[in-house]
Every structure is written in C-alpha cells, then in structure tokens.
Specification:
This protein is mainly α and about 240 residues long. It contains eleven helices and five strands, in the order H-H-H-H-H-H-E-E-H-H-H-H-E-E-H-E.
Length: about 240
C-alpha cells in the first residue's frame, strides 16, 4: 500500500500561522506534531531540511535552524533558497538572509514574462537595491522609485548596503533575546525630502512594550556601531498584532 503524499501546503500554512504570532513556539505537543509531518518529507533532502530549519526558527533553536538550513541549501532550487532566506530573516539574521538572495539571478525574478513583485519586495527588504534596480527599471514596476531613490542616497552618502544589514543584525539580536520572531514583512518607508530610509521590524508587542526593546537596540547599536549612519538610516520596531 502506497503512503499518501505529504501535504506540504498545509504544513506551510501551519508554520506560517505560528510565525504570525511573533513569539517562540514552546508547546511540545504541537512541536512533535509538526516534526512528524516534516519527517514524511525525508526523501526530499532539500525540502526536508528546509522545513526542519523553519520549525527550529519557530522554536528559537537557531543553531539547529542554521544546521538544517545549510544542508537544504546544498540541494535547493530557487524557491527553496527564497523560503530559507525568509526563515533566516524571521529569526533576525538579516545578513545571512541577504546572502541567499545574492544566489538568485534575474531569471528567478521573472515569471511568465512578468516580474515577481513579492520577490522584488522581499529583496528590497534585504537591502538589495543595487541588485533589484536593473530589474524594476527594465519592467517599470511600481517599486522603481523606492529602489532608485534609496540606491541614489546610499551612493551619495557612501553608505554600503552591508552597513544597513549590520544595523538590522543588531536589531535581530534584540528579537532573539526577547524570544520574538519577525511576524511579517519589514516596513520600508523612504523620505525623499529628508533622504532618510526608515526600516521597521514588525513584532507582536503592544505599543507600550516597545520602549524597552527600542532603547535596548539603540544602546547596542551605538556600542557596536558608533559610526552608524543614523542620520540617513532609521531602524526600529513596530507593533503589529495578528
């Protein structure tokens, strides 16, 4: 008798539903249930380890997340690379998330002769302005003004994209210290008049609870990156209740 095929769509929805709560999963019965569902994928090395990495992101076991993610990426296709990039970003490892985006080519951004807007926005969230700019310019997408303006400002003030990622990584340590997960996409707003890029990390906290983590982040930022370009790059947290 053949075993039924794993329902990866349901698994994706369940994992994403937990991510949207924005807090580390500690319910053992739920974790065992998810692990059992993932074990059914063992025949597909990339898929199996990709989902394990996603689960360990949600349980806050970041070393296991990275271990299984690394195995998956050795066999991954473009879709799996994108998925694991999101997983890393959810845990606040923004530079590592960006490193995976750099593995993609322009062809990965085009589906049926049209640009994949979700992937473009995700790449912009990973500070890949220089990488995405030729694509959005070629296809004249609505993301062109953001990509062009930010890229121009970074060049004008000699700010490397890696510098912004390092600032985000510091914010990521604050996420993990408080057992939080980025619960949705980064909020990116560019102020043309002031030439300021505002990046907010969405978290499941009440606005009144935000003060402590904001202060903690700023203290860490100025300790670890005293020359951070805060006059042009504002990074913080925003309360998103799901």
């Amino acid at each position: 008798m053949l075993n039924p095929l794993p329902d990866t769509d349901s698994l994706l929805q369940e994992l994403n539903g937990i991510r949207l709560t924005g807090v580390i999963l500690t319910y053992e019965l739920k974790i065992r249930k998810l692990k059992k569902a993932i074990d059914a994928l063992k025949d597909d090395i990339a898929e199996y380890h990709m989902f394990l990495a996603s689960l360990y992101c949600l349980t806050g076991e970041t070393e296991k997340m990275k271990y299984h993610g690394n195995i998956s990426m050795q066999h991954a296709n473009a879709g799996q690379i994108i998925y694991h990039s999101v997983t890393l970003g959810n845990s606040g490892f923004f530079s590592e998330s960006r490193n995976l985006i750099d593995l993609l080519t322009e062809d990965n951004f085009i589906i049926d002769d049209k640009p994949d807007i979700h992937l473009i926005n995700m790449s912009l969230a990973n500070q890949a302005y220089k990488m995405v700019l030729p694509i959005v310019n070629k296809y004249k997408t609505t993301e062109l003004p953001l990509a062009a303006s930010v890229h121009q400002t970074l060049q004008k003030y000699d700010i490397a994209e890696k510098t912004i990622l390092s600032m985000l990584d510091i914010a990521g340590t604050v996420l993990r210290d408080h057992n939080l997960i980025k619960n949705s996409d980064l909020v990116i707003i560019y102020n043309d008049r002031l030439e300021v890029l505002n990046i907010s990390i969405p978290v499941s906290l009440q606005p009144t609870e935000m003060v402590d983590i904001e202060w903690e982040f700023m203290n860490k930022l100025f300790t670890q990156m005293p020359e951070a370009p805060v006059q042009n790059i504002h990074i913080g947290f925003t309360s998103v209740q799901t």
